[in-house]
Design a protein that fits this description.
By secondary structure, the protein is an alpha+beta fold. The chain contains six helices and eleven strands.
């Protein structure tokens, strides 16, 4: 092999400027060997391809909800909305002239609990007089407090003074019978008064007749 290489170098560098051509030849030879080595290594490496068709099968619902382990858990917003929708559907379907009802409720905030706190306010006024005889009044106001708890059978619980229900953003209803204006008005009043939702946030539509 070395003898063959010597013959080739002698042949390549036989004329003027031969040393430079020999260097070029050696670099080309090294690059070629590296290429061959990489090709051989690549033949021993297996790369698993990703099946795009399977990855696209995830439903929009599964992509939008967080997942812990194998189970999806619902956000507080989802739970409140489902409760409103179930209760509203149950009530509306009991109204005279109303058939099957579908309800969608969206909320802006979850329930807010205001607990009783033992607050303490203090105020301290300081009068200072500078060298020119001017008087300055400094008022320092501070507030501190702690949540009041009551204990029942070893369990401590805060005292709730107020509970603010979730703010509802909008309600959409599709109902059999809503094509009747009287029935539609009864549905509208029930939703507006029952949920304390402004009228412009309620949409009621008659259900499309099948067939």
């Amino acid at each position: 092999m070395g003898r063959l290489l010597g013959i080739i170098e002698k042949w390549v560098g036989g004329e003027k400027g031969g040393e430079k051509r020999i260097q070029t030849f050696r670099w080309l030879l090294i690059i070629g060997l590296i290429g061959v080595i990489l090709m051989i290594m690549n033949s021993f490496i297996n790369v698993d391809s990703i099946d795009d068709s399977q990855s696209d099968r995830a439903s929009p619902e599964s992509a939008s909800l967080p997942v812990i382990g194998e189970e999806k858990f619902k956000l507080p917003f989802d739970e409140y909305e489902e409760q409103y929708e179930m209760r509203l559907k149950e009530i509306l379907e009991k109204i005279v002239g109303v058939g099957n009802v579908d309800v969608m409720v969206t909320i802006e905030s979850t329930e807010e609990n205001i607990v009783f706190e033992n607050k303490k306010d203090s105020q301290q006024v300081t009068n200072e007089k500078d060298t020119n005889g001017a008087t300055r009044h400094i008022t320092d106001v501070s507030r501190s407090g702690e949540i009041v708890l009551f204990e029942v059978e070893g369990n401590k619980t805060p005292i709730y003074v107020k509970k603010i229900k979730p703010q509802i953003r909008g309600v959409i209803i599709v109902a059999n019978g809503a094509e009747n204006l009287t029935v539609k008005e009864m549905i509208y009043d029930s939703v507006r008064k029952g949920l304390e939702v402004p009228g412009h946030r309620i949409q009621i539509n008659p259900r499309k007749q099948s067939g």
